[in-house]
UniProtKB/TrEMBL annotation:
Superkingdom to which the source organism belongs: Bacteria
Pfam families: KxYKxGKxW_sig
UniProtKB keywords: Signal
UniProt cross-references to NCBIfam families, sorted A to Z: KxYKxGKxW (TIGR03715)
InterPro entries registered for this protein in UniProt: KxYKxGKxW
Protein's name according to its UniProt entry: KxYKxGKxW signal domain protein
Signal peptide: 1-39
Upper taxonomic lineage: Bacteria, Bacillati, Bacillota, Bacilli, Lactobacillales
Tagged with keyword Endoplasmic reticulum: no
Organism of provenance: Limosilactobacillus antri DSM 16041
């Protein structure tokens, strides 16, 4: 008999391995040692299989079979997780940080005034509550407070990377318009506190600058023929819930209303750019109106009342702004004839001249009497 060695190629896990197989050749055929397995059958792995070494994040090595290294039944644990962990945030409690901003305001579908902004500080401790308090800007009387939820602000996190609350310091608060009590200005205070009711208890406050909630201006208020024409703008946080805009012509001389009309506001893209971005209707506040002059109005002084009210409730729970002044004179009365002659050939009297009279605003019909 002659001893021969054959090498079998097989796969163990993700590794390809070889194994020597000894056979004895005889005249009648071949007798295979160590069993009856054919050459194309996989040989089970044994303890003599090669050992795989895997390098891990901390520089130490872990050992196991090729199957163990790749098997889902053996997930990466312990130090291996360090490769996927993010570095811990470095917090600086020493360097003073207390900053914030109110980015803007808008009206939501429920008629609330929605303010959004951010507050970053190094005085925050894990588990603190975040409250936003709304004060009357004129007297600091509290109008509303509410605990706000976190709004992610990666831009603030980048600006204050070592503040314990920065990227999570964004906020949004919806204030019911009827809680503003007609205030012309508001001051918002952002507070981090350990007190569940929002009272000071550790943490810090940030007082945002006073913001205007109501303002307006008349670009035009004049007599045009027998009409008084008005155009201007009126920004008002209460327009969020009081969606009807009523313009009233008020006689200051007699102390009474003369006429009123309902107007539809139009876009006012210029107003947010000049300080009214934090007012709910800042981008939709311009209006126009006109009123007919009557003889009873001559000689009186007038002003405009711009009013936001709920639809159909023009005299109930309104937000008013009084704007401008205009006096309609009736003392002016002068004239001159440039020509007053007889045309004998045509048997006519020719007249030409002028007559200026303040009363023409109320009585526009001009009659000549011979």
């Amino acid at each position: 008999m002659e001893e021969k060695k054959h090498f079998k190629l097989f796969k163990a896990g993700k590794k390809w391995c070889t194994m020597a197989i000894a056979t004895l050749a005889v005249a009648a055929g071949t007798a295979v040692m160590a069993g009856t397995a054919s050459a194309d059958e996989a040989v089970p792995a044994t303890a003599s299989q090669p050992v795989q070494t895997a390098q891990v994040a901390n520089g130490q090595s872990a050992t196991g079979t090729a199957d163990q290294a790749a098997s889902p039944a053996n997930p990466v644990t312990g130090n291996d997780k360090q490769t996927s962990q993010q570095p811990q945030r470095q917090v600086d409690y020493r360097t003073p940080v207390n900053a914030g901003n109110v980015d803007g305001a808008s009206a939501d579908k429920d008629g609330d005034v929605v303010f959004n902004g951010w507050h970053a500080t190094n005085q925050y401790q894990e588990g603190m509550h975040h409250f936003v308090i709304v004060l009357d800007g004129g007297n600091n009387h509290e109008l509303y407070r509410h605990e706000v939820t976190t709004v992610e602000r990666p831009d603030i996190d980048k600006a204050y990377p070592k503040a314990p609350i920065a990227g999570q310091g964004g906020f949004t608060i919806a204030v019911p318009a009827d809680r503003l009590n007609g205030a012309n200005s508001l001051q918002l205070v952002s507070r981090y506190t350990s007190d569940a009711a929002g009272n000071p208890a550790g943490g810090s406050d940030y007082w945002f600058p006073v913001v205007t909630t109501k303002a307006g201006w008349l670009d035009q208020f004049k007599v045009d023929g027998n009409q008084i024409t008005v155009s201007g703008w009126h920004v008002d946080d209460q327009a969020a819930s009081k969606t009807e805009h009523t313009v009233i012509l008020w006689d200051k001389t007699k102390g009474r209303e003369v006429a009123r009309t309902t107007v539809d506001n139009v876009a006012s893209a210029d107003l947010p750019k000049v300080g009214y971005a934090t007012v709910a209707n800042g981008a939709q506040a311009r209006f126009t109106a006109s009123f007919t002059i009557t003889p009873a109005m001559m000689g009186d002084e007038f002003t405009i009342v711009s009013r936001y009210n709920k639809p159909g409730q023009q005299d109930n729970n309104t937000s008013d702004l009084w704007l401008g002044s205009l006096k309609i004179n009736k003392t002016g009365n002068a004239g001159y004839l440039d020509n007053f002659s007889v045309d004998k050939a045509n048997k006519k009297i020719n007249v030409s001249g002028w007559h200026a009279d303040d009363m023409s605003a109320a009585e526009p019909t001009h009659t000549l009497i011979l």
